[in-house]
Amino acid sequence: MRNIVVVVLCCLVLIGCSQVRLQTNGYTQNQLGFRPGDTFSVIENDGSSNALFDKEIKNKIEIILTKQGYVITQDKPKYLVHYSYSIDGGKNFNRTIPQYHSGEMAQIHNQYGMTVGSVQSPGYTSYVNISNTLYTRTFRIDVLGTEGSTPVWTGETRSIGASDDLRDVIDYLVVANFEQFGVNTRKSVKRKVWTIQNYTKILQPEVEKTDQIKIK
Asked: How far apart are CA 159 and CA 202, in angstroms?
C-alpha cells in the first residue's frame, strides 16, 4: 500500500501537480448568513499598488457572488464588500532528512566454486540538509451593512507555501473564503487541495448554450 501511495505522489509531481494548504476562519456576531437575492457592492481598493491585479480580484468576488445567487449592484446595495490581500517576505526553514543506504550483497561459494548462499553487509544512514523558504499568503473579506461601519461578517483565508507569487494562489484563497461565506466557523477550517482537482472551477466563465442544428 505504501508503494502505491509513493507511485501516485510521484506521478502527481511529474505532471506538474502541487498541493495548496488552506486555512479559513469566518467571524460574525450571530449566525445570520446571507440569503439568495441579497444585493452587494464590491468596493475596489483605490490605494492598491497594482490596480489591475486588484480589479482581477474584484471580478473574481463578483463572479462567485453571482453564481451563489446574490445580486451585484451599485444602486442602494444591502451590503458592501471590502477585501484585502497580502504576502509576507517569507521565512527560511532548515531541516535534516535521514537517508538509509542498504549494504552490498556478496555471494558465498563452496570449495568447488558453486554459489551456496549470499550475505549482505550492514547498511548505513546519511543525512541531507534541506533549506527552503515558505511564504504566508492571506486574503480577507469584510462585509458591512450600508447603515453601519461594523462588519457583519469577516472571512480570512491563509495559505503557507513555497510560491512567492500571490497571483499563483489567489484563486484558491478566494474560493476557500467563499466556502464559508456568512458562516461563523468558530474555529479554523483546514483544507488540502491538489491543483489538478480543478478546485477553482467556480471562477470559470459560464459557457453559453446554443441550439444544436440537426443535419438529416
From this structure: 19
List the single range of 30-34, 85-89, 116-120, 176-180 with lowest mean pLDDT. 30-34
Strands (E), 13-89: 19-27, 39-42, 71-72, 79-87
Which residues share a beta bridge with 19?
194
Whether pTM exceeds 0.85? no
How far from each other are the two terminal CA atoms of the chain, in whole angstroms? 54
Query: What are the pLDDT digits (tens) for 151-170?
Result: 999 999 999 999 999 999 99
CATH tag, 17-93+132-202: 3.30.160
The three-class DSSP label of residue 139 is strand
What's the burial of 114, exposed, middle or buried (CB within 10 Å: 0-12/13-18/19+)? exposed
Average pLDDT, stretch 31-42? 89
Alpha-carbon span 38 to 137, nearest angstrom: 30
Q: What pLDDT is stored for residue 188 in this prediction?
A: 96
